[in-house]
Write a structure and sequence with these properties.
Blueprint lengths: L3 E5 L4 H17 L2 E8 L6 E3 L2 E3 L4 H25 L4 E7 L3 H12 L3 E5 L5 H7 L2 H8 L4 E4 L1
Helix pairs in contact: 3-5
Protein name: UspA domain-containing protein
Family: Belongs to the universal stress protein A family.
InterPro entries: Rossmann-like_a/b/a_fold (IPR014729), Universal_stress_UspA (IPR006015), UspA (IPR006016)
């Protein structure tokens, strides 16, 4: 059925839980997994582990974002490899994550996007919406939302 699954990740616990389920799903179906991380572009505020990181130069910011992407992606790749699932990891700089997710799925040749439900609540949900909702609305590739 599905042969190549794109799994967007942001390093959150929900995203990590979703990654583990995607790995199990891929193993059951014999699919390959590509993990994807959308890196923010300078000068957007970057939040990590509850701390605001405000580098002084765009180069330093890019270096820190790349390091975070590598750490998150390598952790997911290690889990997939331990489960015997073929995998790869990729990242891209984007301030519009849902567009980057769809583009990454298309570039990887994925036939399924397997992602967490990142529901926002209250006013932020009304104003910003959910990246998952935006992917569901705009993607031509099937999307499986894991809760």
């Amino acid at each position: 059925m599905f042969k190549h699954i794109l799994v967007p990740t942001d390093g959150s616990q929900l995203s990590s839980d979703t990654s583990r389920r995607a790995i199990a799903f891929a193993k059951e179906t014999g699919a390959k997994v590509t993990f994807f991380f959308a890196k923010p572009d300078y000068p957007v505020a970057f939040y990590g582990e509850g701390a605001l990181i405000d580098p002084t130069t765009p180069e330093k910011f890019a270096e820190m974002a790349e390091q975070q992407a590598k750490e998150i992606l390598s952790a997911h790749e290690a889990e997939a490899k331990a489960a015997g699932v073929a995998c790869a990891g990729t990242s891209a700089v984007s301030d519009i994550p849902y567009e980057a997710i769809i583009a990454a799925a298309e570039q990887a040749g994925a036939d399924l996007i397997f992602m967490a439900s990142h529901g926002r609540r209250g006013i932020s949900g009304l104003l910003l919406g959910s990246e998952t909702q935006k992917v569901l609305t705009h993607s031509k590739i099937p999307v499986l939302v894991y809760r």
